[in-house]
Amino acid sequence: MKTIEEICAILEPVKRDHPLVHNITNYVVMNFTANVLLALGASPVMAHAIEEVEEMVGLANALVINIGTLSRPWIDSMEKAARGARDRSIPIVLDPVGAGATRFRTETARRLLGEAPVAVLRGNGSEILAVAGAKSATRGVDSVSGSQDARGAALDLAKEYGMVVAVTGVEDFVTDGTRTATIANGHPLMGRVTGTGCAASSVTGAFCGVEKDAFAAAVGALVSYGIAGELAAVCASGPGSFQIALLDALDALNTEVVCARAKVTLS
Amino acid sequence: MKTIEEICAILEPVKRDHPLVHNITNYVVMNFTANVLLALGASPVMAHAIEEVEEMVGLANALVINIGTLSRPWIDSMEKAARGARDRSIPIVLDPVGAGATRFRTETARRLLGEAPVAVLRGNGSEILAVAGAKSATRGVDSVSGSQDARGAALDLAKEYGMVVAVTGVEDFVTDGTRTATIANGHPLMGRVTGTGCAASSVTGAFCGVEKDAFAAAVGALVSYGIAGELAAVCASGPGSFQIALLDALDALNTEVVCARAKVTLS
Amino acid sequence: MKTIEEICAILEPVKRDHPLVHNITNYVVMNFTANVLLALGASPVMAHAIEEVEEMVGLANALVINIGTLSRPWIDSMEKAARGARDRSIPIVLDPVGAGATRFRTETARRLLGEAPVAVLRGNGSEILAVAGAKSATRGVDSVSGSQDARGAALDLAKEYGMVVAVTGVEDFVTDGTRTATIANGHPLMGRVTGTGCAASSVTGAFCGVEKDAFAAAVGALVSYGIAGELAAVCASGPGSFQIALLDALDALNTEVVCARAKVTLS
Question: Is C52 in the B-facing interface, judged by CB distances under 8 Å?
Answer without folding.
Answer: yes
